[in-house]
Amino acid sequence: MSQTTVREIHPNLYLLRVADTRTAYFEALWEIPEGVTYNAYLLKTPEGAVLFDGWKSVYQEAFLEALASLTPLEAIRHIVIHHMEPDHSGSLPALLDRLHGKVTLWGHPFTKKLLAALYGLTEIDFQAVKSGQSLTFGGHTLTFYHTPWLHWPETMVTHLAEGNLLLTGDIFGSFGLPEGIFDDEVDLQPYLDAARKYTISVIGFYRDKIVKHLTTLRDTYGVHPAMILPAHGLLWRQAPERIIQSYLNWAVGKPQPGKIAVLYSSMYRYVERGIGVLVDEFQRQGYTPVVHRMVDEERGSLADMLSDIVDSEAVVLGTETYEADVFPLTAFLLSEIIKKANFAKPLLVLGVFGWAPAAGRKLRGLLESSAFDPVHILELKGLLTGEGEAQIRAAVQEIVSHLAQTATTKV
Amino acid sequence: MSQTTVREIHPNLYLLRVADTRTAYFEALWEIPEGVTYNAYLLKTPEGAVLFDGWKSVYQEAFLEALASLTPLEAIRHIVIHHMEPDHSGSLPALLDRLHGKVTLWGHPFTKKLLAALYGLTEIDFQAVKSGQSLTFGGHTLTFYHTPWLHWPETMVTHLAEGNLLLTGDIFGSFGLPEGIFDDEVDLQPYLDAARKYTISVIGFYRDKIVKHLTTLRDTYGVHPAMILPAHGLLWRQAPERIIQSYLNWAVGKPQPGKIAVLYSSMYRYVERGIGVLVDEFQRQGYTPVVHRMVDEERGSLADMLSDIVDSEAVVLGTETYEADVFPLTAFLLSEIIKKANFAKPLLVLGVFGWAPAAGRKLRGLLESSAFDPVHILELKGLLTGEGEAQIRAAVQEIVSHLAQTATTKV
C-alpha cells in the first residue's frame, strides 16, 4: 500500500493518489520510466460524500481500500466523472457493485453513452450536466464546465466554490511520481519537463482546445482558482497560474531562447558524425542543442522527442536513406510530430545516403502537410568530408540567421 | 576476447567470428536480444592469405588481433568484399592502414564507389569482378557470383572449388549467438526461427531476389555447395540444403500448417478481450495462434511480429481507434509489414472504438496497396458483449473456411 497516498488537502477534501509503476507505455504508446499517478478526490459533507474520478482498473482493490479508510462506501452519494478514460474510470464498475446503485453519477451528456459502451453500465442514476450548471450538496456548491477534447470528447472540470478549487481531470496533469503532492513541495523544473511531455503526447493532438477552453474558463466564466487539482501528478496551491501559463505556452509551442531539438536516426553512425558537427556549430553560435538518437545501441523516447520540440526555437531531423526511403523510425517520428507537435518552427534536415539520395526528397513531401518551415534540407553522401562539414555549418548558420530575422520581426 | 571465435573449419580455411552483444537494434531498427555474430573467413595458402569480409568497426581492434593470431597481416594478399554494409566492412580501413596498400580488393564493380563513399578509400588496388569470374591463387580457385540486393546493391558470393564451399555474406545468415559454429552442433529449430526473423527484417524488402538469385546459382551456374559459410550465425555443413530451402520458403511466405499470427495493440485492454475470444476460437478450430501485443505494460518486438507473419496461414491485426485513426504503432507495424512481409495471406482485422469507428476504414485503405486479402474487417464498440463475441467467432470461422477452400483449390 506504500504506493497509495491519502491526504486531506483542504477541509473535508481528500486526495486519493496511486503511483502506477507498472505502466511502461502510457496509452500503450508513450514511454514513461518516470511513472504516473492517478488522483481521485473525495469531499466529505454532513449529508454524505462526493467522489471525483477514480483509478485504473488494475488498482481498483487498492482504490476501494483507500476510499474505505475515509468513509463508509455507502456514504458516497455522488460520483463526478470528469472524463471516461479508463485510467480514471476503471475502478468505477467495482465501486458501483459495492454501492448497489444508491449513488448519482454526474458528467457531460456524452458520458452516459460511454458508461454503457465501455462498462455496460446502463442501470444507473446518471445526471447529464450543462456547462456552467451547479450542484449544491452538503453545504458545498460544485459548478461543472465542459472542456471537450481535453482530452476526451466528454471532458469537463468541476469548480468548488468553498476554497475556490478547480478539479481539472487530465488538464494540468503530468507524468511522474512526485515526492510531494503539492507544487511547493518539489523542485518544479524537472516536474514541468514531465508535464510538458504529458501535455504534448497525450493532449497534443487537441492542443488548440487548451487555449480555447482555458481562455473561456478565465474570461467567460471568471474562474481564477486558488488551487488546481488534476487527475495526474502535482496539486497546485502555491502557483496555479504557473501551470496554467505553462499549458498555454506548450499549446502554442513557445520556445525557450536558444533551445534546439536535434532528433536523428543513424544505422552505422554516418548521420551521427554529421550531427556532431551540427551540434558543435549550434553551440558556437550560442545555442543549446538537446539531442535524441535512435541508433544500434539505444533508442530515444518518442515522448521525450515530441516534448523537446515544444519549447525549441528550431528542430533538426537527421536520417539515413533506407531502402530508397526515409529511415522507418524517422518517418514514424515525423508522422507523430505532425499529429502532436506541429508547430510553425524552422526545420533543418540532415540526410545521409550510401548510393542514392531519397530521404531528403521524401521528407520534403511529408513536411508539406506540416506547419514546419523546412529552411534547409541537406543530403550528404557517405563519409563526412571537409566539404560536407562546411555545408553542415552553413546550414546551421542559415537557421541561426532565420531565427535572428524572426526575432527582429517580432520586436 | 571470449566473444571472439577463431577456428579452422576446412583445411587452411578459418572462421573469425565475433559475438556482438552491444547492438540492441540491428540496423538501428530490429530488436535483437538474441545478439548477432559477424563472421569473416581467412584462407591460408603458400602464396599468402585471402580474407573474406570483416567485422563492425566497434570490434576492429579485436578483429586485427584475431587475424594476427592466424597470419602475419602483411601475408594477406587479397580481400574479398561480399558487400559493403558496415557490419562487415567496418574493420576494413583499420586493416588497410596496417597493410600499407599492399593488398588487392575484390568485389562487385559498384563496390569501388562505396569504398570511396563510405570510407574515402580511393588509393587502393581494386579489382571489379564479373559474375562467374574466377581468381586462382595459391592453388585455390575462387569464383564470384553477383547476387545484387541481397541485401545491398553490390552483393556477391564466392565459391571455393576446393571443398565446394560457398561464402554467402548476408545470405543464409541469421541473428543469434549460437553455442556451436556448425549446423550439426546446435538445436536447429530455435535457430531457424532467428534466421527467419533475420531474413524477413533485413532482407525482406528484396525477398523476390532471394528466389531469383538462388535459382540462378543452382540452375544456371550449377552451384550445389557442400558447405555454406555466411557472414552471420551458423555455418552449414550437415544440411546446407535445409537453409537454402528455408530461405526459399521464407521468401514466398510458405505457411506452417495451422499457424496464425495475431498482432495487436490495446491501450486499455478492450481489443485484448476480443483477441482472447479470437484466440480461443482459432484453437477450437485446431489452429495455433502466435500472439504479440503492444500494451501499457509491454511492447512486442517489431522484428518478431514480421517473422511470425512469414510462416503463418493467416494474419490477425487488432487495434483500437486512436484520435480518429488507427493506433499509431499498428499503423507503423502495417507499413513495415507491407514493405517487408507483404504476402498474399488472408487477414482479419479486429478494431475496437470508444465513440466513433475509424481504424477499420483506415486499415482497409492502407491494405489496398498490399498483397493481403482482408477477408473480414470487424469493428466493435467498447466493452465486449455476447453479440460481439459471436461476431468474433464468426469472423474466425470465415477465415478458417477461407483457408480450407484455398487448401482444397491447391490440391
Output the CATH class name of the largest domain in chain A: Alpha Beta
| Helix-strand category of chain A | alpha/beta
The CATH homologous superfamily of the largest domain in chain A: Ribonuclease Z/Hydroxyacylglutathione hydrolase-like
CATH architecture of the largest domain in chain A: 4-Layer Sandwich
Helix count, DSSP H or I runs of 4 or more residues of chain A: 12
Helix content of chain A: 25-40%
Radius of gyration of chain A: 24 Å
Features:
homodimer, 411 residues, alpha/beta, Metallo-beta-lactamase, Chain A, Rossmann fold, 2 domains, six-stranded mixed sheet, 28% strand
Structural features, described:
The structure is a homodimer of 411-residue chains. By secondary structure, chain A is α/β, with parallel strands linked by helices. Helix content of chain A is 35%, strand content 28%. The first copy, chain A, has two domains: 249 residues, 4-Layer Sandwich (Metallo-beta-lactamase, Chain A); 152 residues, Rossmann fold, CATH 3.40.50. Chain A has twelve helices and 20 strands. A seven-stranded mixed sheet of chain A has the order 1-2-5-6-7-8-9, with helices on one face. In chain A, strands 15, 16, 17, 18, 19 and 20 form a six-stranded mixed sheet that branches. In chain A, strand 17 and strand 18 form a beta hairpin. The longest helix of chain A is centred in the last third of the chain and has 25 residues. The model of chain A has no long low-confidence stretch (mean pLDDT 96). Chains A and B meet through strand 3, helix 4 and helix 10 of A and strand 3, helix 4 and helix 10 of B.
